[in-house]
Amino acid sequence: MNAWPAVAVLQAGGAQPSPFGFLLPMALIFLIFYFLLIRPQAKRQREHDAMLKALGKGDRVALRGGIHGTITGTTDDVITIEIANLRGERVRVKADRAGVDRLVEKAAPGEDT
User: Fold this and answer.
1) Of 8, 9, 10, 97, which residue is most buried, by most CB within 10 angstroms?
2) Pairwise pLDDT comparison (10 vs 72), residue with the higher score
3) Long-range contact list for 80-84, CB < 8 A, 24+ apart?
4) Which has the higher per-residue pLDDT, 99 or 18?
5) pLDDT tens, position by position, 30-45
6) pLDDT, tens digit, 9 for 90 and up, residues 56-109
7) What is the CA radius of gyration of the chain?
8) What is the pLDDT of residue 57?
9) The sheet that has 68-74: what strands, in order across it?
10) What share of the chain is helix, strand, coil (3-state, %, to 5)?
11) Which residues fall within 8 angstroms of residue 98, CB to CB, at 6 or more apart?
């Protein structure tokens, strides 16, 4: 007598397992990945894209490289950031809009730099 009943049934010519039996666990794994990984990442990406579109003059931002500054000018893809004011001379750099990591502080309404 065989110790494994499933093996014994298959050896005895029993019914073959359904190929759809494999699809159910795979579908469950996909759903878990979707709700735990894919969906939250897509939401964060949408929020980041909306933040990039809403950037304007006077906003304080942090770039991915760690540089903090105030936006002094914008175009479609490039922003000008003032990072320092040394002895009355302003230090400004241009960066890709996509290089902005986060918005530190939104400009107050009516504030002009």
Assistant:
1) 97
2) 72
3) 82/113
4) 99
5) 999 999 999 999 999 9
6) 999 999 999 999 999 999 999 999 999 999 888 999 999 999 999 999 998 887
7) 28
8) 94
9) 89-96, 78-86, 68-74, 60-63, 100-105
10) 40, 30, 30
11) 52, 77
Please name the residues in contact with 103: beta carbons below 8 A apart, sequence gap of 6 or more. Answer: 51, 55, 59, 60, 61
- Please count the CA atoms within 13 angstroms of the CA of 32 that sit on its side-chain side: 6
CB 96, CB 78: distance < 8 Å: yes
In contact, 91 and 84? CB cutoff 8 Å: yes
Name the one residue in this structure whose structure tokens are 């159910």: 24
Closest alpha carbon to 52 in 112, 10, 44: 44
CB distance 95 to 74 below 8 Å = no
Run of H or E residues at 84: strand 78-86
Question: Regarding predicted confidence, which is higher, 11 or 20?
Answer: 20
Residue 69 near residue 58 (C-beta atoms within 8 A) = no
